[in-house]
Write a structure and sequence with these properties.
Elements lengths: L1 E3 L7 H18 L7 H4 L2 H10 L11 E4 L7 H7 L5 E4 L3 H13 L5 E4 L11 E5 L6 H11 E11 L3 H8 L3 E9 L7 E10 L4
Parallel strand pairs: 1-7, 2-3, 2-5, 3-4, 5-6
Antiparallel strand pairs: 6-8, 7-8
Helix pairs in contact: 1-4
């Protein structure tokens, strides 16, 4: 069963930050491949709205990290919606990391921290929430989540039509609780919100 994503309250300041982010993303995309040319024309819905729908699924407080943040989807979008939150963006590609630093400065998001490192080498605090979009299979993402989440923390991963197959494969190695949410931007996609993540052998 898929639950509906809770709505966001109107916020003109958030929308202004996201509009500035969209313009910066498209400007940089001319020289750095932050989003594919095929989807750049649909950036508002395909990327920004798709990322923004993760915000209501976050815990109310605590640091958040976005792994493999790329062009800041969903990490910069989350930070733009919640500028008071500590948000860590992990991106090993230095050109993309430079974009993330520029985006945080342009949008005046002082609580964003960019880690231009591989995920295994990033020094992160215990996290209330972890996100990743189009980064890796669920099995691999859960290994990062188990290591990085604070007790009670949650992992939020948008997945495509193969979500149930990924859950089945991951269940061979991991215990977790999962709630499924229906994506508002892609009828074939599912947002997975996972908690109580631990390896099967640790049970």
């Amino acid at each position: 069963m898929k639950h509906p994503v809770p709505p966001l309250v109107p916020d003109p300041a958030r929308d202004a930050r996201l509009a500035a982010y969209r313009d910066l993303l498209l400007r940089w995309n001319a020289t750095i491949n932050l989003v594919s040319a095929r989807t750049a024309a649909e950036v508002d819905n395909r990327h920004i709205a798709d990322s923004l729908q993760l915000v209501p699924l976050l815990p109310p407080e605590g640091p958040v990290a976005d792994l493999g943040s790329g062009g800041g989807l969903p990490g910069i979008v989350i930070a733009a919606a919640l500028p008071e939150r500590e948000v860590h963006l992990v991106e090993s590609d230095r050109r993309k990391a430079a974009f993330l630093v520029e985006a945080a400065a342009t949008l005046r998001l002082p609580r964003v921290r960019v880690h231009a490192l591989r995920i295994e080498h990033a020094a992160l605090p215990p996290l209330a929430a972890l996100t990743a979009r189009a980064l890796a299979p669920l099995d691999a993402l859960l290994a990062h989540a188990a290591r990085l989440l604070a007790p009670g923390g949650v992992a939020i991963f948008p997945k495509g039509r193969g979500a149930e197959q990924e859950l089945t494969s991951a269940a061979a190695h991991w215990h977790f609780q999962v709630t499924r949410y229906a994506s508002r931007t892609d009828p074939e996609a599912t947002i997975l919100r996972l908690s109580e993540i631990r390896r099967v052998r640790d049970a």
